[in-house]
Amino acid sequence: MTAVPTPRELDDYREQADRFIAAIDEEYYLHFAGHKDSLDLVPIYERFGELTSLDQANRVGSAVDGDRRVRELWKFACSGYLGNLTRDFEETSARLEAELIAAVDGDEIPYRMLRPRIANEPDRAKRQRLEDARNALTDEHLLPVQLEAAQVVTEAVHALA
Asked: Helix, strand or coil for residue 107?
């Protein structure tokens, strides 16, 4: 077992965590705002690899002593570890969402535009057809990826001390 991190080591980890969160947030913003075609999480997780490792999560966990800040840091470490394991699934889901097209009443509608179209559609029957198309794409393409990611998390969580 590795030594419990010192307060200084926890502060250093917290600083790195802030930089990691900023990088991840920027990547999500750039992709979902349409400034980037792909969501590229892998390079960020690789750059912060030590931050999101199982050993690091368990090491931070060994420092939990009732202090809310340390407990939140451990929560981040666990989340980072699990996120590192599912980063490829997250990228795949984002790519699929950006690529999928629904055909409804002769119109081709990008997957991410289905919800706004449903919200703005005055005809109830057409809203239902739009929702059915969205659900079909989700069930066929996105849910299998999300299920696989959930299975990875379910197995990995047992390694967290």
From this structure: strand
SS3 110: strand
Residue 28 has what pLDDT? 97
Q: Which of 100, 108, 105, 106 is nearest to 136 (CA)?
A: 100
φ, ψ (nearest 5 deg) of residue 3: -70, 150
Rounded distance between C-alpha atoms, residue 67 and residue 133, angstroms: 48
78: number of Cβ within 10 Å: 20
Residue 50 included in any domain: yes
Per-residue pLDDT tens over the stretch 105-150:
999 999 999 999 999 999 999 999 999 999 999 999 999 999 999 9
- Read off the pLDDT band of 1 (50, 70, 90): low
77: Cβ contacts below 8 Å, ≥ 6 apart: 13, 17, 51, 52, 56, 57, 60, 61
Owning domain of residue 89: 7-159
Which tens digit of pLDDT belongs to each residue from 11-29? 999 999 999 999 999 999 9
> Residue 40 above 80 pLDDT?
yes
The domain tally of the chain equals 1
In sequence order, what are the beta bridge partners of 103?
108
